[in-house]
Amino acid sequence: MSDQTNLDFKIVLLGDSSVGKSSLVLRLCKNKFSENLEPTIGGSCVIQNIEIDESEVKLKIWDTAGQERFHSLTPLYYRGAKGALIVYDITNFGSFERAKDWIFELRENGEQDSKIILVGNKIDLEAKTVVKDTTAQKFADKNGLYFFETSAKTGEGVNQVFFALAQMLLGKNDSTFEKQNSQTEHSTNFDQENKDNNFVSQKVNLKSNKTKEKSGCC
């Protein structure tokens, strides 16, 4: 390890209820999927360590509630967040429209230099798609966002999107990172050259994590 160790970054997952935010976190940390996850109440925090080359990045991942009745609490989680995943359901156009509101709120209330990735989840339901990837990509390009599509159910794209955010937070390859989804295979530990996204070759290990639910700190 070099001196670039123990880098801590708070990130938040934002989006409407039932778009799959908690499922993305579960897939990342446990490599599992459940059809019966309870809706997040307020917010929950997961700590996930990602090793990128000689840098160990600690992601403090805040999974926020998407229900309207908890909306007033959400700005509390923006504070200090250096990165964000704005998640929508590709089978629900309303969730995509609301993603635009989440982005606006984050930019109004969050950190000025926060890295934002727009995430279209549930690509395993391709036959039910109502938000085309070209539509989302156009919106992302217009608003200076990075764009990925994922499936928490199959794992497709999940590690890649969190890896991409960690890489952006480290300032690695930010200027050449293409705003498109990686189609590489999902795995819990992987050593990847992501040629599709012009990544510098990185060694990535997802390490053990701790979870704190309904907590004011992480």
Automatic annotation (TrEMBL):
Gene3D superfamilies: P-loop containing nucleotide triphosphate hydrolases. InterPro entries: P-loop_NTPase, Rab, Small_GTP-bd, Small_GTPase. This is Ras and ef-hand domain-containing protein. It comes from the Eukaryota. GO terms for molecular function: GTP binding; GTPase activity. Keywords: GTP-binding, Nucleotide-binding. The keyword Metal-binding does not apply. It holds the Pfam family Ras. It comes from Anaeramoeba flamelloides.
